[in-house]
């Protein structure tokens, strides 16, 4: 079991973010006898997944919806799959945009290097 500070350090996020995720019902840590938050390995894996979703620009509202569906149980698997497939499609579109921008920038950089003799 890990404290909120340990989890924040392990995952490179703030304790404030962890409390926010709890408030938004994205994660529900356990509580010890003193009422302090405790996170197990399952929490860590879930939070790593949530962090990846955030890093790939999934809106917090969709993450909350996914978390809610997950907590409802197996009968929501098709809905969760749909959310993830839609997000993957969004990522692929963004990757295409970024790759196109990267190619354009590479062309411009090459042009300037040729112009100044580098």
From TrEMBL:
Instruction: Give the matching SMART domains.
Output: HTH_MERR
Record key words, sorted: DNA-binding
Q: Where does the record place the HTH merR-type domain?
A: 1-69
Any one GO MF annotation of this record: DNA binding
Pfam families according to UniProt: MerR_1 (PF13411)
**UniProt feature coiled coil, ranges:** none
Q: Which domain of life is it from?
A: Bacteria
- In Swiss-Prot or TrEMBL terms, this protein is called DNA-binding transcriptional MerR regulator
Supply the source organism for this entry.
Paenibacillus xylanexedens
The taxonomic lineage of its organism, from the top, reads: Bacteria, Bacillati, Bacillota, Bacilli, Bacillales
